[in-house]
Amino acid sequence: MKVIYGLNNLKCQRKKSVATIGIFDGVHIGHQKILTEVVRQAKTRRQIATVLTFYPHPQKVLGSISSKSTITSLEHRLKLLQDIGVDLCIVIRFTRALSKRPIDWLIRHVLVKKLKATTLIIGSRFKLGRERVSAKDFKKLLHNHGLGLKIIPTQRYEGKVISSSLIRNLIKTGRLDIGSKLLGRSVAIYGTVKPGRRIGRTIGFKTANIDPHHEAMPPTGVYAVKVKVYERYYRGVLNIGFRPTLGLRQKEPEIEVHILGFDGSLYNKPIELFFVKKIRSERHFKNKAALREQIKKDILYNI
C-alpha cells in the first residue's frame, strides 16, 4: 500500500479510483464492510482502492476526546488498511482551518481532480465537515460532479451501533471478549519497545517495556498475550500497572511483557501484543521473592 502524507504531496493520479473517507479508528467490522467493498469494486473496475483518512483525530483537534483515547495509532491503522488490500492511503493533516473548508472543495480538488474518483463508498452514519453533511446529502453533491455513491448499512451488536467509541469503552473497561468480536480480531496494542529500568532482570525475568503510542489500554492487571516480533509469534505474560511491589512512583500505568522463548534485543523495534485472557489483577507483594514466585505461576498459566 502506498501512503501519501499531506494533500500538498498528492499529485494527480493517472488511474481512476474507488474511494472512501473516514478516520477508521480501530478498523472494526463496521469499517471492514466499507473497506472490503472499496477493494472489491476497485479490483472489478481495475481502479485504485483509495482511502482518505485524517491525522490527528478530528475530535482531538476540536476537543471532543482526550489525547489517549484512540483504539489504534496512525501506524497501526495503516497496517490494518494494508492488510485489507487498500492500494493507496492519503493521510490528511487535520486542523481547525481544514475543518472550515467547504465540502465542495474536497470533492472538486481532491476526489475529482487529483484522485479521478468514479465512486465513493461510505457508511450510513457518515458525517463530514462543519456542515456535518450526511450520506444522503453527500449523494447530491457528488452527483453534481459525476461521481457515484454507495452507502453501506450500519452494523449493530445487540441493538447498539458498532462504533469506535463503543469499542474504546469496551477495551478500557476490560470487556475484551466483546471488543475482539466487534474488531473482528483480538484486541491488540501495536507499540514500540522502549528502554526501561531493567528491574525484571533482577528478579529473573527479562521484560520489554512498551510505548503504546496512545492506543487505548485495558485495565491494570496481568494478561496472557500472543506477541508478534520480527514476523514471528511467541507467548507472553504482560503487566499493565504501577508495579507497587517495586516501590516506584508512577503517574501513569506502564506496560511490560515477558516473552517466552525469546532472547534478543528489541529496543526501538515495533511489537504487536494480542490479548488472550486476563490472568489476575495487579497487587502488592511483600517482597521481590514473593513476586518472583507469582510470576512463575503466571507463566505456567500461559504454557
Explain how this protein is built.
This protein is α/β, with parallel strands linked by helices. It has 2 domains: 161 residues, Rossmann fold (3-Layer(aba) Sandwich); 116 residues, Beta Barrel (Elongation Factor Tu (Ef-tu), domain 3), CATH 2.40.30.30. It has 10 helices and 16 strands. Helix 7 packs antiparallel against helix 8. The longest helix is centred in the N-terminal third of the chain and has 17 residues. The model has no long low-confidence stretch (mean pLDDT 91).
Quick summary:
With 303 residues, this protein is of the alpha/beta class. Helix content is 31%, strand content 30%.
Produce the secondary structure layout.
Layout: E1 2-5, E2 17-21, H1 29-45, E3 48-55, H2 58-61, H3 74-84, E4 88-93, H4 96-99, H5 103-114, E5 117-123, E6 127-128, E7 133-134, H6 135-144, E8 148-152, E9 156-157, E10 160-161, H7 164-172, H8 176-183, E11 188-194, H9 199-202, E12 208-211, E13 221-229, E14 232-241, E15 254-259, E16 270-280, H10 288-301
Parallel strand pairs: 1-4, 2-3, 2-5, 3-4, 5-8
Antiparallel strand pairs: 6-7, 9-10, 11-12, 11-16, 12-15, 13-14, 13-16, 14-15
Helix pairs in contact: 7-8
